[in-house]
């Protein structure tokens, strides 16, 4: 039931193949999405965003933030404990994880910081000059020049 025919979309549009792939990715996502580690996504300005991930128990050296295929991939791995530790209660999860955040076009990672058990990833949307609105001057009285092939 989840297979859709995208042929009509490709016939009537140009350049929307990435959007169709995004729709497929959303529809094929597992129902049980991982909830570890918890995170927030906030809008900090008109064109700026921040992803904050709770990474208690991890040092900055054990965390990895990478941009790949239009996504930010955050992963962490604790080195194996050489000495056997005996916990009476273990409530702080320090298991390895990988979290992927798909970014919209023209959004790039500006910075990443680790402070007080939180990993903050600052994002900025940079719209290229070609896509920004621009005023087109209208000439008065003269016809636009014609180009003959």
Q: Roughly what percent helix?
A: 10-25%
Q: How many H/I helices?
A: 2
Return Rg in Å: 23 Å
H/E order of the elements?
Answer: HHEEEEEEE
Main sheet specs = 4 strands, antiparallel
**What amount of the residues lies in strands?**
25-35%
Q: Tally of extended strands?
A: 7
**Helix and strand composition category:** mainly beta
- How would you describe the shape? elongated
Distance between the termini: 51 Å
Strand order across the largest sheet = 1-2-7-6
Mean pLDDT: 80
Q: What does this 3D model show about the protein?
A:
It is elongated, with a radius of gyration of 23 Å. A 4-stranded antiparallel sheet has the order 1-2-7-6, with no helix packed on it. It is mainly beta and 149 residues long. Strand 6 and strand 7 form a beta hairpin. The longest helix is centred in the first third of the chain and has 11 residues, at 17-27. It has 2 helices and 7 strands. It has helices at residues 7-12, 17-27, and strands at 39-43, 48-54, 63-68, 71-76, 97-102, 107-115, 118-125. Helices cover 11% and strands 32% of the residues.
State the main characteristics.
four-stranded antiparallel beta sheet; three-stranded antiparallel beta sheet; mainly beta; 149 residues; single chain; 7 strands
Outline the fold blueprint.
Elements: H1 7-12, H2 17-27, E1 39-43, E2 48-54, E3 63-68, E4 71-76, E5 97-102, E6 107-115, E7 118-125
Antiparallel strand pairs: 1-2, 2-7, 3-4, 4-5, 6-7
Short note summarizing the structure:
With about 150 residues, the protein is mainly beta. The chain is built from two helices and seven strands; from the N terminus they run ααβββββββ.
């Amino acid at each position: 039931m989840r297979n859709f025919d995208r042929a009509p979309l490709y016939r009537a549009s140009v350049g929307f193949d990435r959007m169709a792939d995004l729709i497929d990715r959303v529809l094929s996502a597992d129902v049980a999405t991982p909830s570890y580690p918890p995170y927030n996504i906030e809008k900090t300005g008109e064109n700026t965003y921040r992803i904050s991930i709770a990474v208690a128990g991890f040092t900055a050296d054990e965390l990895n933030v990478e941009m790949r295929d239009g996504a930010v991939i955050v992963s962490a791995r604790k080195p194996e404990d050489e000495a056997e530790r005996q916990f009476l209660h273990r409530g702080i999860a320090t298991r390895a994880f990988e979290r992927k955040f798909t970014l919209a076009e023209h959004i790039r990672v500006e910075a990443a910081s680790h402070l007080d058990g939180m990993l903050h990833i600052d994002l900025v949307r940079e719209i290229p000059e070609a896509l920004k609105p621009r005023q087109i001057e209208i000439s008065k009285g003269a016809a636009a020049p014609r180009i003959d092939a």
